[in-house]
Specification:
This protein is 72% helix and 0% strand. With 341 residues, the protein is mainly alpha-helical. The longest helix is centred in the middle third of the chain and has 30 residues.
């Protein structure tokens, strides 16, 4: 029964992962000039919905007082990492071609392995480490496909792929902290794991706080002075609601941003539920299954992106090497190896 439950969760998460990646890029089409505003709106949406669900689950007796009293220092760290991760990821995503986003995001797995070894003391087999190496190689091949004129990323500044990879590192760190909270919480709660909405709600609350506190610093990196910040927020809100003077530039809002926030929230709940049922690495490998589908869909002409993207030979080679690494990593493991995950 447990295996069937995990299989069903994997299937739902893959479907949501593809939809989430496509909508991520589509939402940034109208909000290209206001990625930090979209990040802030997304995190405040998390807080409102997650705490509403948390309250209902507390009233129903699913969430206990002991769960709510878990130490908050780890949630603070999650908030900082996810605030920086979502802000830098949306800034890079607004500038990158659609198919580049899912493949660069697979560096998440590499960072997760590194952090789980360092902080959770996990061990990995030779085929897992070789698979990780192939993932790194695939990402490098894909990124360097823009080094020559006419290639896939030839018109993209190198800082944007680097920032997307950095965003994956920050979010991988947050996912490892969430897994630690489940493990540590089970010990503190005498065998009962914390409810996923406890982790989601408090993590999102601190994420929203730090996105707000870091907004002056992050916006300054894009050349927005502190004195111009109120105007930036006002213009971002007008674009988000599509009520400003330049409605053509914000065409697609508010439908696309709101749809992305809704699907992204559902995807995160599904993903964290999978982490609770299995592990953070199983969850990341599940989302990796959506990579080839996402790359293909994002290369097609889509609403608000009518021209699509031409996939260069080196980019396809990089994606193939990356997928080979994911397959190698996910080869059947011995009972001892599964126990160490």
């Amino acid at each position: 029964m447990a295996v069937r439950g995990i299989a069903a969760s994997v299937g739902a998460t893959v479907l949501l992962a593809v939809t989430n990646r496509v909508l991520y890029k589509l939402a940034l089409v109208p909000m290209k000039g206001y990625p930090f505003f979209l990040a802030q709106a997304t995190t405040f949406g998390y807080v409102a919905v997650y705490f509403s669900i948390l309250f209902l689950r507390y009233r129903a007796g699913i969430v206990t007082k002991e769960m709510l009293l878990l130490p908050k220092v780890h949630f603070v760290a999650i908030g900082v990492l996810e605030a920086l991760g979502v802000a830098s990821g949306m800034s890079a995503g607004a500038m990158l071609p659609g198919p580049a986003i899912p493949i660069l995001s697979q560096s998440f797995l590499v960072w997760q392995i590194i952090f789980s070894i360092l902080f959770l003391r996990k061990s990995y087999s030779l085929n897992q480490l070789l698979g990780c190496f192939l993932v790194i190689s695939g990402v490098i091949i894909a990124v360097t496909s823009g080094s020559d004129k006419g290639h896939f990323l030839s018109n993209v500044e190198f800082i944007w792929p680097v920032m997307m990879i950095g965003s994956s590192a920050l979010q991988a760190g947050a996912s490892i902290l969430k897994e630690f909270i489940f493990i540590d919480g089970e010990r503190r709660l005498k065998g009962k794991r914390p409810d996923i909405f406890v982790v989601n709600s408090f993590g999102s609350a601190f994420q929203a706080l730090f996105v707000f506190l870091l907004l002056p610093f992050l916006s300054n990196l894009k050349g927005i002075q502190f004195s111009d910040l109120p105007a930036y927020i006002n213009d971002g809100a007008s674009c988000f609601l599509n009520t400003g003077d330049d409605q053509i530039a914000c065409d697609g809002a508010p439908f696309l941003p709101l749809l992305f926030i809704t699907v992204n929230m559902t995807f995160n709940i599904s993903l964290l539920n999978l982490v609770k049922m299995s592990s953070a690495l199983v969850a990341s490998l599940t989302t990796a299954l959506a990579v080839p589908i996402s790359i293909y869909v994002l290369s097609l002409p889509l609403p608000y992106m009518p021209h699509g993207s031409r996939l260069s030979t080196s980019f396809v080679l990089g994606a193939s090497v990356l997928l080979l690494g994911l397959i190698l990593y996910n080869l059947p493991k011995s009972a001892k190896q599964r126990k160490n995950e």
